Amino acid sequence: MKNNIEGNNEMTIETKRLVIHTASEDEMRSMLAKQTDKELIKAYGEMLQECLDHPEDWNWYATWMIELKDGTHIGDLCFKGLEKDGSVEVGYGITEDYQGNGYATEAVEAAAAWALEQPGVCRVDAETDPDNKKSQRVLEKCGFIPSGIIGEEGPRYYKEC
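Structure (tokenized):
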């Protein structure tokens, strides 16, 4: 895994097959403008607003673009802010055409490892739909443990330092 801090607090994580980077304000606005799903419009809008309100914490609120090494965009992930207790929650998704190739596992594993290396972070949380066995398997392969708590979206998982 290779980490590079680029201008304006943007972050890039490279893995064997992927480049994962925080979206710029322009990229986030473009994603928002193209979105038709009301739930995602709300989520992307909230992420952008949090980035603008907390530019010093951009990496904890921004959309992270998941791309193949050739630049093909295959999905995204995000953190939902850094909590006072040292936890961050990660959310992720891979475009349907690219699912089943281990990309989600590779991206989540790299993002969680990066997060746990950051000052003040001691735990990464994730939540998945109860019926989304593929996503639950991704979390298990990345070393996340079921917490026994059911959140808004379903079962919660965690990974600690």
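Confidence is low (pLDDT under 50) at residues 2-8. Residues 60 and 81 are 5 Å apart (CA to CA).
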